[in-house]
Amino acid sequence: MKKSFLKKGLIAALIVMGGMGLGQKAEARSSVVQVKGSDTILNASQAIAEKFMSENKGARIAVTGGGSGVGISALINKTTDIAMASRNIKDKEIEQAKAKGINVDEIVVGFDGITIIANKSNPIKDIDDKTLGKVFRGEITNWKELGGDDAEIVVLSRDSSSGTHEFFKEHIIREGNSKGTQEYGAKTLYMPSNEAIKQEVKANKYAVGYIGMGYMDSSVEAVTVDGVAATPENVLNKTYPIAREVFWYADSAREGVVKSLVDYAVSPKGQEIIKNEGFVPVK
């Protein structure tokens, strides 16, 4: 998969100035569109924003991460125009937004396969989803139980602000039961980003974690789940068991640069960027 030209995990403000070219009034030209949230689609969203600004001189867009929950909270509190998320917005969040006068519109910008990764020297190359749940719940703690070395499994997860953390908990740890109560194991190490998980797995022979497929590279080993690899084809045909949509959320009453940027993200140009960033385009 093609790596982003932006450093992984970078939290950046992308600002380009010039003439508007978007039919904006002169007094609106100084405003900066804020895009905030999911680290999983941070790099893809940065790439979309940069390309959009290169084609629309004067559009100013700042893209920052922090996690899906951070982005959705910022949308509710009106401190961001677009929230990036790797989980669905919750009913209570929709109601909170309505109370602030925001009618939230859900925009699917792509599909992602949550990739299980291990150190390249680890002999375990496949794991079934039920066993994976036991590992992340702390019920299986030694690699020898999986046919590997006699060594403790170092379990890595995203932190609780991450939409990927929540999706993985519901679909793997709670085995798809939205009302389940199972949690990550007591010894789980919580990491602030996809890149942090990848670097720890690269350095630690006995670590296992998960990342968005757009962050996968040759420095770590992708572990298949139920014998199925996290590839764009398998995500699209729904054979990969840990696949999900990734979203932008915005006010349905959006206009100006915000509307144009959302339209651009789901246009052929925007979807080509999604593909180049390692995700599966919607169309």
TrEMBL record:
<dbReference type="Pfam" id="PF12849">
    <property type="entry name" value="PBP_like_2"/>
</dbReference>
<comment type="function">
    <text>Involved in the system for phosphate transport across the cytoplasmic membrane.</text>
</comment>
<feature type="domain" description="PBP">
    <location>
        <begin position="29"/>
        <end position="268"/>
    </location>
</feature>
<keyword id="KW-0732">Signal</keyword>
<keyword id="KW-0592">Phosphate transport</keyword>
<dbReference type="GO" id="GO:0006817">
    <property type="term" value="P:phosphate ion transport"/>
</dbReference>
<comment type="similarity">
    <text>Belongs to the PstS family.</text>
</comment>
<dbReference type="InterPro" id="IPR050811">
    <property type="entry name" value="Phosphate_ABC_transporter"/>
</dbReference>
<keyword id="KW-0813">Transport</keyword>
<dbReference type="InterPro" id="IPR024370">
    <property type="entry name" value="PBP_domain"/>
</dbReference>
<dbReference type="InterPro" id="IPR011862">
    <property type="entry name" value="Phos-bd"/>
</dbReference>
<dbReference type="GO" id="GO:0042301">
    <property type="term" value="F:phosphate ion binding"/>
</dbReference>
<protein>
    <recommendedName>
        <fullName>Phosphate-binding protein</fullName>
    </recommendedName>
</protein>
